[in-house]
Amino acid sequence: MPVYVYQCKNCGHILEEHQSFTDEPLKTCPNCGQDQLRKKFGNVGVVFKGSGFYSNDKG
Ligand SMILES: [Zn+2]
Q1: pLDDT of the chain along its 59 residues, tens only?
Q2: Distance from the alpha carbon of residue 10 to the mean position of ligand 1, in angstroms
Q3: How far is the CA of 58 from the centre of ligand 1 (A)?
C-alpha cells in the first residue's frame, strides 16, 4: 500500500498516511483542524521543513 505525504497549507504540519489508490484523500489537518491538507506527490521520504522550502540534492 502506498504511503502518501500530506502537508497542511495552514500550519505546515506534515503527516504520512497509508492509503490505497481508491481511498479518499485526507483534507482535515489533525494539527490545526483546518481543511488545508494537500497531498504531496513525488519522492516519498523527502522532508520539507519550513513553508514552501524545497531541499535540492546538491553534491
Ligand atoms: Zn494544519
Answers
A1: 678 889 999 999 999 988 887 888 899 999 999 999 998 865 555 555 555 555 566 55
A2: 5
A3: 30
